[in-house]
Amino acid sequence: MRTFVVLSFLLCSMLDAAAQPVGSAFTYQGELRDQSQPADGFYDMEFRIFAQESGGNAIAPEVTWNDLQVVGGVFTVNLDFGFSPFDGQALWLEIRVRRAGSTGFTILEPRQEMTASPYALQAVMVGVDAVDSAGIINNSVTASDIASDAVRAEEIAAGAVGSSEIAADAVGSSEIAPRSVDATAIALPLSLVAEVQANPDPAVGAALAVRNTADGLGVENAAPYGIVGQTSYSGGTQSPMYLPPAGVRGDAPDAGSTGVGVIGTSGDISGISFGFHGGLMGVGRTRGISGYSGTGLGIYATSTSSTGVWGNTSRSDQNYGLYTNDNLFASNATLNSSNAVVLNTGKTAVSPGEVVVFQGVEVGADGIPTATVGRSMGKAGVRPAGIVVSRFDPAALPSDRVHGEAAQGDVTPEGAASPGEYLLIATQGPVLVKLSASYKGLAAGQAVGMDPETGMTKSMEDGSPGMTPLGTALQDLPPGQSGEIFVFIH
User: Fold this and answer.
1) Which of 118, 274, 287, 373 is the most buried (most CB within 10 A)?
2) Domains, in order of start, for the chain
């Protein structure tokens, strides 16, 4: 029986001096003795890897060399078991040998414990959990060593990177893509921050935008001010929104019936029921919005199609939707009358400039009482209610008086008010009045009244006995003519 012995061996990895990518093969060199003499000639060899010093099963496919030439007992082979065996565990190499052409392999004992050299393969393939934070020297991996998109969100475990691992100013706006960070990525109570962008829209020109898609807050601050906004821009309106420069701007473009651009609350608002949508909303126990100016306007509101300011109260007695301890001013106050909404319950339509009389009162479905009017019924002693100013369409008012929905249509359409329609009448102040022909004419300052028989407005000097005074002419009317002149109703 032949005996074989490997007296010594050398393991080394196949590393290229030019630092080219390497495979999983490594070089094995040993000294083989045949019958106690240095082997010469050709031999067949089999190489296997085990995780035990003896027994067990091979953990990788065997590597076979046939007709391997051995000179003076020395042989060299390349062995490739792949990467998978080299995961940090202890390994042993088993060698089987025979002379080329003979039968039966001899197992060389003991197995050879594999030294550290093959573990250089770990530099090519790092096993799971093989490197932890303690194994990485500070600053050994910098941004230049990490390729773009090399580390993605799915490679970073939840909670793996905290604020203590991120240096101040280490992450700037240029490193954060628009909308790449949302509320689910930031652990804050009530989803306080949903999205933060620096200058997100050049057309709008905001320095900072905070956007929230959750049922929470955009910004929370324990300091005296939640947000202080300031702008030095004075170049006019901003296209395409056509809005003036502002310190703080709030947008709720698709918020339906409950969204508000800016909401301000003060004090204890528990128990206050409110619903609204618009640009600005103030909610407080005593005052919702308080405005003050030392030289200009405290609160300014405008609308190009509906109502600049809409005031409402939920009190059953309707006091007060709009309150002031001072005078109210309207831009047309120099020639403005006091108007009332009434309902035409007469048999004929009434037109602007015509006089009407009261007929009673009706309570609508909303519980609001409305005076009813019609033409004079030809009865003496009936006092005029006022002069028709225009038709009135309640359907064109805000459809939800609590929420202040935008008006649809014309509140005061042109034309006569038919029976069953609402209308506006002037009860005091200057208004255009239709006058019947005056035989003596009419001069400014003379009295006019309502003829109880015809219901027409005439000069008191031309009218029949029993005429009811209506007001004072503010313009002249030539003798024998009819027409519209301004009359001050009183």
Assistant:
1) 373
2) 4-123 (2.60.40.2060), 337-489 (2.40.300)
For residues 460 and 457, give the distance between their C-alpha atoms in angstroms, rounded to a whole number.
9
Q: What is the pLDDT of residue 18?
A: 45
Cβ atoms of 472 and 488 within 8 Å: the answer is: yes
Token pair of 457, please? Answer: 């407005």
What is the spatial distance between Cα 178 and Cα 176, in angstroms, rounded to a whole number?
A: 6
State which amino acid sits at residue 239.
S
398-434: b (≥16 Cβ within 10 Å) or e? beeeebbbebeeebeeeebbeeebbbbbbbebbbbbb
In the DSSP assignment, the letter for residue 304 is S
Q: How far is CA 114 from the centre of its chain?
A: 62
Q: Convert 237-259 to b/e letters by CB count within 10 Å (16 or more is b).
A: ebeeeeeeeeeebebeeeeeeeb
- At 400 the three-state DSSP class reads coil
Instruction: Report the predicted TM-score, pTM, of the whole model to 2 decimal places.
Output: 0.46
- Euclidean distance between CA atoms 332 and 270, whole angstroms: 41
> Length of the chain, please?
490
Q: Which amino acid is at 331?
A: S
**Secondary structure (3-state) at 460:** coil
CB 346 within 8 A of CB 359: yes
Give the model confidence (pLDDT) of 419-434 as tens digits. Answer: 999 999 999 999 999 9
Contact (CB, 8 A) for 349 and 417: yes
Count of other CB atoms within 10 angstroms of residue 104: 8
pLDDT digits (tens, 9 = 90+) for 187-201: 544 334 444 555 555
- Give me the residues of the chain with pLDDT under 50, please: 14-19, 188-195, 239-240, 401-404
pLDDT value of residue 248:
79
Residue pair 115/133 in contact by the 8 Å Cβ criterion: no
Task: Render 102-123 in DSSP notation, one character per residue.
Answer: ---PEEEEEEEEP-SGGGGGGG
